[in-house]
Amino acid sequence: MASEHGRFRRRPQPAGGHTWPIVAGRDYKEHTTGPMGDGMFNAQRPRSSSAKVSRRRLLLIATVAFGTVFGAFGAAPAGADPADPADPPTTLATRGNEWRQVGPNGSGGKLAFTPARPERAYVQTPIGNVVFRTDDRGTTWQQSNALPVDATDAGGVAASPLRPDVVFAGGVEKEHWRGYVLRSTDAGKTFTQVLDTPGRVSGVVFDPAGARLYAMAADGVHVTTDNGNTWRLLAGSPADARNPKFTGGDLYFTAGADVWVLRRGARTPVKLPRPGSTGAGVDQFTGTGSTLVARGDLQVAQVSTDRGAHWRALRGPWGTDVVVLAAIVDGSGRLHIQVNQSTGEMQQWGSRDNGRTWRPEAGLARIDLYESTGTFPGRPGTDVISAGAGIYTTDDHQSFRRIGVPGSEVLSMTVAQGKSGPAVVAGTMTGTYQSTAPLKSRLPRGYQEWGFSGAAPHTFGNRIDGLATDPSNPSTVYRVRNTCTSEQPCFYLEKSTDAGVRWTITQTAVPGKALGIAVSPSDPKRLYVATHSPSAVYTSNDGGESLVQNGHDDLEGFTSVAVDPVHPDSAWLGGPNGLFRTTDGGVTLTKLLDGWVSAIAPNPRTPGHAIIAARDAIYVTTDDGKNLTKVAGDLTGYLGSLAFTPDGSTVFAGSHEYHTPALGVLRSTDGGRTWGSITKNLPEPSVSSLTVSADGRWLFAGTTYGSVHRLAV
């Protein structure tokens, strides 16, 4: 089976096998974002925004070219037993160097500002377990240390109007689904818990004077007048309080399909007239001055221009046969509505006169759905918009500048050689980002922003689980982009010849979810791709122009692949069923080790020497797997990534959080026989990917909730 741009050949398979069509590829420029993806090999932690955001996107997903978010494959490995406290890993010196977060910006979140420091903003990312701070209106960001709760959903963030270093964050923890409020007095670096509630906390907000802090929770509205030391439940407040907003000195919030208000000076809140048709509840609520906008889940938006006394449905050139994806009033009182037509066309409209007249806007095409909004104090004409893949500023909702935040999960990384120098290429849930800045000794201004193309990053069907650089031509990079559906996963094989800036599709909708890709160092035309559903090893002998599927239906699939540095037909494969080796290009496999194997790293300079990361241990071989020595066992974290320095003298292991806390990054300088921690000041020890620069100077750790961090090695 062939096409103009790609060919596919399939070896004979058991009865019931399939072939699939290969369609013509296309060229497109991603710049640093572009067609990208979702759903990982991690069933343990919710992946992104809350359920209400996911519902808001259901219809959007149905209208895009690529499919829905993937479900998890199988079960994540069970946590290992705790390490023997008498034999902890040795902490190694880092020669005075510290981890530095280098980007890329690629996550949205809840926003908070403070007039006490107008250039500052806080962002709580969607899961709720990371808070970022900028002190220069988004040029650079600092990440909080690990929070004292295991969060699963963000409940909002609020900064004191009087003391800019005091900030509160709310949410819900994942084990018992209890709500919490955390307090920081050091500008978001560390937090302590100050409120525990029986149900989720869905919003926190200060009054304009900074005298009171309110927390919206499942059991009502909690209030504190002493910065969180003591709390009381507000008399008369309804259950399931959400969406707090202060405007004109009044506190508005929602509960179910109703809008409530606590007027300035009042002791108890009152329920306002219900804002028309809001479905099962008010999903999005904003207000400025006397103008309020309420949108029910996937229903028509309602506006009030008299502080909630009367409501009317927003009408405009979009008609009535639409789904309202988002509707807000910004800091200047301008209305914005994003809709999905019955034809599948998505539109955005803006109004400066409370909805009497409308003009088209470009927000959907530029940054995707408006999830939350705000303004830096003193800049009321410039809106700050949070969307799925970033925080943006805009004056006109036609053009946008991304200013943050570096809160992406980096699933894969590689280093390539571009025209302007070496570059790091990072694969995330929302595509591929590329930048030369992280490889510079002196980081340039705005180094965490790896570039914004001006088009909305695709947040579905564009998950990049594997990246590989051609060792003989480091400007050439391959990636696997997972898309389609959880029931019928498939991947696109794509190639870049300019170090990850532009990508060309070479294979389209190949069956399986691809979690690993490797290029042979001795034959750069030989590629390997490891998949599950189906369990297969795909090989190419022509740089991805054709693929051969080697099916292994008796196995549960593969999560990692590595090619022998000398022999292109020899490769290592790992997955839930253990460690395997092939010497005939993936046609037959020899099992070498039982148990879950997550990562494999052959020594680039020493044939036969390889490091293998299993579920709770590290193994070493010096004879191509004939003998495997367990050198580190009973590790508390799940080791999911390995990387050698180019000279083969040092190897690093990254620990990813599943059931137990992650270990961060381990290092061995004796071929893997002994290991020590170099986590030091890394704010997030859950590491999803590792890579080392070609000159061996920099180690890059792709984290679960904080993008990429680097360390001089």
Provide a quick synopsis of the model:
The protein is mainly β and 713 residues long. It has 3 helices and 58 strands.
How does the SSE layout of this entry go?
Blueprint: E1 7-10, E2 27-29, H1 51-56, H2 58-63, E3 90-91, E4 100-103, E5 110-113, E6 121-124, E7 131-134, E8 142-143, E9 151-159, E10 167-173, E11 179-184, E12 192-197, E13 201-206, E14 213-217, E15 220-224, E16 232-233, E17 241-247, E18 250-255, E19 258-262, E20 270-271, E21 282-288, E22 291-296, E23 301-304, E24 312-313, E25 322-329, E26 335-341, E27 346-351, E28 359-360, H3 363-367, E29 372-374, E30 383-387, E31 390-394, E32 401-404, E33 410-418, E34 421-428, E35 431-435, E36 463-469, E37 477-484, E38 489-496, E39 502-511, E40 513-519, E41 527-532, E42 536-540, E43 546-551, E44 560-563, E45 571-575, E46 578-582, E47 590-593, E48 597-602, E49 610-614, E50 617-621, E51 629-633, E52 638-644, E53 651-656, E54 665-668, E55 676-677, E56 687-692, E57 698-703, E58 708-712
Parallel strand pairs: 1-43, 3-55
Antiparallel strand pairs: 2-39, 4-58, 5-6, 6-7, 7-8, 9-10, 10-11, 11-12, 13-14, 14-15, 15-16, 17-18, 18-19, 19-20, 21-22, 22-23, 23-24, 25-26, 26-27, 27-28, 29-30, 30-31, 31-32, 33-34, 34-35, 36-37, 37-38, 38-39, 40-41, 41-42, 42-43, 44-45, 45-46, 46-47, 48-49, 49-50, 50-51, 52-53, 53-54, 54-55, ...
